[in-house]
Design goal:
By secondary structure, the chain is mainly α. It has two domains: 147 residues; 53 residues. The radius of gyration is 35 Å and the shape is elongated. Helices cover 56% and strands 0% of the residues. About 10% of the residues have low confidence.
């Protein structure tokens, strides 16, 4: 049976520790998204060589890292130790075919990192073009990566921003065909109309208040004048 960090290797908590150690090794931030991507990568690989949860082969030029596998052959290798496995995975991420994964992790862009893994030649199946790539939250975390469902989703569905952009483009084209302003313009106009309405209401309230105050002053003036007349003549005006 192939070695797995989830069975012989210590379990889910150890898999999270390994993810953190790999991020440290490549100089990437240990954000929840980054940790989840590496953790889910381990889950998706399922098992491989010892101390090798990402299931890579030996590192060319560094036979000291592995104990099994041809140095320039394919297939998963057993690594000599925990640190050797981390070093081997980090070395692989420095290779030209996998540098997009590393760049995304270093940038803290976990969704792009996930896409880069799926689109790279790391797995010949490309993880079912994303459908077989895990999106399970690691222990102690909750929820899935932004733009993904908890079942793993497809690679083409992970970028919610792309879907939004395409939707806005379609609506803007439709509005243009009808001779109407685009969404942004409509939003700006609506904002101006709302602001104008508020200012009008405030103005009406202020005018009404001033008018009411004027009436009260007039009443006070008339009442005062009446009192003066009564005092002078003794007769109600």
């Amino acid at each position: 049976m192939a070695w797995s960090i989830f069975t012989q290797g210590g379990g889910k908590g150890v898999a999270v520790t390994w993810a953190n150690d790999l991020l440290d090794a490549i100089g990437a931030p240990k954000t929840p998204g980054n940790v989840q991507v590496v953790y889910d990568w381990e889950v998706s690989e399922g098992g491989g060589g010892k101390y090798n949860p990402l299931n890579q082969g030996p590192v060319p030029g560094h036979p000291e890292l592995t104990t099994t596998g041809s140095q320039y052959g394919g297939g998963a290798s057993d690594y000599a130790s925990w640190q050797a496995g981390i070093t081997g995975a980090a070395d692989y991420l420095g290779m030209s075919n996998f540098q997009a994964i590393k760049r995304s992790l270093v940038a803290g862009d976990s969704v792009s990192a996930r896409n880069a893994i799926i689109n790279s030649p790391w797995a010949a199946s490309h993880y079912g073009h994303g459908s077989a790539f895990s999106n399970a939250a690691p222990p102690g975390a909750s929820g899935s990566l932004p733009g993904l469902d908890n079942s793993g989703g497809t690679a083409n569905a992970v970028n919610a921003g792309l879907s939004t952009t395409l939707g806005e483009t379609f609506l803007n084209s439709l509005l243009s065909g009808l001779g109407l302003p685009d969404l942004k313009d409509m939003a700006e106009r609506a904002g101006l109309i709302l602001m104008g309405t508020i200012l009008i209401i405030v103005g009406i309230v202020e005018i009404t208040g001033a008018r009411q105050k004027s009436i009260e002053i007039s009443k006070e003036f008339v009442g005062g004048k009446a009192n003066v007349a009564k005092a002078a003549t003794g007769v109600e005006p």
